[in-house]
C-alpha cells in the first residue's frame, strides 16, 4: 500500500533552516510528483510547491521563492523540503503529498511534521 | 496569488444535503477541469474526496459529488452523517504547474 512517512517534529530559532523528509513506499516513486503543503495553527492549507520525482523539475509558490528548496533522492524514494531564514509565521504542520502529474491532485498524504519557530 | 473563496462555515442536519462553493477566477477554476476537494478531521492529514471536478477516488462514498460552472466549483454531500463533520478544502490548478487552495469550510452536522 502507498505510504508517505515524514520525519519528526522540529524546533528552530528565527533565522535558522529546517529540512523535512518524506519517505515513499508502495509505488513507483518516479511516476509521480511530491508536493508540500503547510498548515499554520488554526489556519487553512497552503500550497508550497511541488517536485517531479521523474526529472526533478520544481515549481514553488511565489511567496516562498528564494527561501524553499525541494529535492528528491530516487535511490531511497525520499523527498526533502528545506525552508531557510525561518520566521515565527513559518510555524506550521508541514505535509508531503503524492501528486498525480497529469491532474495535479493529492491522492496520498504524509502524517505531517510540526515545525515550531521560536526564540 | 489570492486563495480561492469558500464560505467559512456551513451546517446541516443528518440526512440532509449541503453544498460548499469554491469561487476562483478565469485563470484557475474557470480555465481548467482540475479542481479537487479534501476532507480534514481535527489533527489528521487531509483526505482526497473529489478530483478533476467530479471524479471520486475508490473508497469514497457516492454521497460526495462535485461539479463546476464557470469560475465556481461545488462539493455536494447528500445524506449527511455525523462523520462528515470536518473541514473541507478545494484546490485548483492555476497554470504553470502552480496550485492554490481555498480558505476552507467548516461543516457542522447539527
Main beta sheet of chain A: strand number and arrangement? 7 strands, mixed
How far the N terminus sits from the C terminus of chain A, by CA atoms, comes to: 40 Å
Overall spatial form of chain B: globular
Q: Helical proportion of chain A? A: under 10%
The N- to C-terminal Cα distance of chain B equals 35 Å
Low-confidence runs of chain B: none
Count of individual beta strands of chain B = 9
Q: What overall geometry of chain A do the principal axes of the alpha carbons give? A: globular
Could you give the count of β-strands of chain A? Answer: 11
Oligomeric form = heterodimer
Helix content of chain B: under 10%
Q: What string gives the helices and strands of chain A in order?
A: EEEEEEEEEEE
**pLDDT average of chain A, as an integer?**
97
- Count every helix of chain A, treating DSSP H or I runs of 4 or more residues as helices: 0
Number of helices of chain B: 0
In short:
The complex is a heterodimer of chains A (119) and B (110). With 119 residues, chain A is mainly β.
Fold and architecture overview:
The complex is a heterodimer of chains A (119) and B (110). Chain A has strands at residues 3-6, 10-12, 18-25, 33-39, 45-52, 58-60, 68-73, 78-83, 92-99, 106-109, 113-117. In chain A, the strands form 2 sheets. In chain A, strands 2, 4, 5, 6, 9, 10 and 11 form a 7-stranded mixed beta sheet that branches. In chain A, strands 1-3-8-7 form a 4-stranded antiparallel beta sheet, with no helix packed on it. Chain A is mostly beta strands. Helices cover 0% and strands 44% of the residues of chain B. Chain B contains no helices and 9 strands. At the A-B interface, strand 5 and strand 10 of A face strand 3, strand 7 and strand 8 of B.
Salient structural properties:
heterodimer; A: 119 residues; mainly beta; 4-stranded antiparallel sheet; B: 110 residues; 6-stranded mixed sheet; 3-stranded antiparallel sheet; 9 strands; globular
